[in-house]
């Protein structure tokens, strides 16, 4: 991929010849310029998201053998062999150039086991992760099925390539990184639920890690995203809303029960969901009353 002294703009990309387009974007997908070649015919692109989606679609529509070549083009993580400049920078950012001899040996053995089983290397978007995250991830994923890892590898390639496009394209033309937000509405009063306490937890390997606790503002929202940027990671999460405390505070009572003497029917409301693409906006609203609630993925 051709390196530029300054970021490109979307207008510049849309105006490129095929040769220049491939030279500029051919390395976005690891050692696979055919993705850029196939995507060129789909220009012009309305946004970076449109460009990225078009490149992903080109890759996914290829035959299985060509996709397998794409997967195999990725280097082993922490390899001491020469890799592309983009891969080298990404691995250094995750601390893979600073492994202890024991960590290097462990990761090397895990990579060999993984590759022997699936016939392509372990692929992970390492930006925002550290060496412990990476070792933990490969240790878990090496036990999955071929189809699960085929799909996961393509998903990780989607994340890696979006980061690379965001780095390549001028700031004022690219979409923001992903974020997680929420909004709580009190259906019993028809107003935003201000002052409701909630927790965000990450769920993995049977454990629950508290990431933060926050309180909704007067609009029923939070003053900042629950997660954004490098904090957005793939995985399973839980939002836990302290509905009982909120309704006690607002002075509401359930039928035949007093606020002070009995717990509410819905004391706490857990909502579990998955983040599969950290570059997307995940909005998880809660519409709540003392006797029921609903949720959905918003925008």
UniProtKB/TrEMBL annotation:
Record carries keyword Hydrolase: yes
All copies of domain Oxo-4-hydroxy-4-carboxy-5-ureidoimidazoline decarboxylase, residue ranges: 14-166
Keyword Hydrolase: yes
A Pfam family annotated for this UniProt entry: Transthyretin
Gene3D superfamilies: Oxo-4-hydroxy-4-carboxy-5-ureidoimidazoline decarboxylase, Transthyretin/hydroxyisourate hydrolase domain
Keywords recorded for this protein, A-Z: Decarboxylase, Hydrolase, Lyase, Purine metabolism
Catalytic activity: 5-hydroxy-2-oxo-4-ureido-2,5-dihydro-1H-imidazole-5-carboxylate + H(+) = (S)-allantoin + CO2; 5-hydroxyisourate + H2O = 5-hydroxy-2-oxo-4-ureido-2,5-dihydro-1H-imidazole-5-carboxylate + H(+)
Pathway recorded for this protein: Purine metabolism; urate degradation; (S)-allantoin from urate: step 3/3
Residue span(s) of domain Transthyretin/hydroxyisourate hydrolase: 180-298
Record-level GO BP terms: allantoin metabolic process; purine nucleobase metabolic process; urate catabolic process
Record InterPro entries: Hydroxyisourate_hydrolase, OHCU_decarboxylase, OHCU_decarboxylase-1, OHCU_decarboxylase_sf, Transthyretin/HIU_hydrolase_d, Transthyretin/HIU_hydrolase_sf, Transthyretin_CS
GO MF annotation terms: 2-oxo-4-hydroxy-4-carboxy-5-ureidoimidazoline decarboxylase activity; hydroxyisourate hydrolase activity
Superkingdom of the source species: Bacteria
NCBIfam families in the record: hdxy_isourate (TIGR02962), UHCUDC (TIGR03164)
Protein name: 2-oxo-4-hydroxy-4-carboxy-5-ureidoimidazoline decarboxylase
Organism: Paenibacillus wynnii
């Amino acid at each position: 991929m051709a390196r530029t002294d300054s970021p490109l703009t979307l207008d510049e990309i849309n105006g490129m010849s095929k040769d220049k387009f491939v030279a500029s974007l051919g390395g976005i997908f690891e050692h696979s310029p055919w993705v850029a070649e196939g995507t060129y015919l789909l220009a012009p692109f309305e946004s970076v998201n449109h460009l990225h989606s078009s490149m992903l679609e080109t890759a996914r529509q290829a035959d299985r053998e060509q996709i397998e070549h794409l997967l195999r083009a990725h280097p082993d993580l922490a390899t001491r062999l020469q890799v592309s400049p983009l891969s080298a920078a990404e691995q250094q950012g995750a601390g893979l150039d600073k492994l202890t001899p024991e960590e290097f040996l462990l990761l090397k053995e895990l990579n060999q086991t993984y590759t022997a089983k699936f016939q392509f290397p372990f692929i992970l978007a390492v930006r925002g992760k550290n060496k412990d995250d990476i070792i933990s991830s490969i240790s878990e994923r090496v036990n999955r099925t071929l189809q699960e890892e085929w799909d996961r590898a393509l998903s990780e390639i989607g994340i890696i390539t979006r980061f690379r496009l965001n780095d390549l394209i001028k700031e004022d033309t690219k979409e923001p990184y992903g974020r997680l937000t929420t909004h709580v509405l009190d259906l019993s009063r028809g107003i935003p639920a201000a002052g409701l306490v909630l927790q965000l937890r990450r769920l993995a390997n049977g454990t629950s890690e508290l990431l933060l606790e926050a309180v909704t503002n007067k609009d029923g929202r939070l003053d900042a995203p629950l997660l954004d940027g490098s904090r957005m990671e793939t995985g399973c999460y839980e939002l836990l809303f302290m509905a009982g405390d909120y309704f006690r505070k607002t002075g509401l009572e359930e039928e035949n029960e007093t606020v002070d003497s009995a717990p509410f029917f819905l004391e706490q409301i857990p909502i579990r969901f998955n983040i599969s693409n950290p570059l997307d906006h995940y909005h998880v609203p809660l519409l709540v009353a003392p006797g029921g609630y609903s949720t959905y993925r918003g925008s």
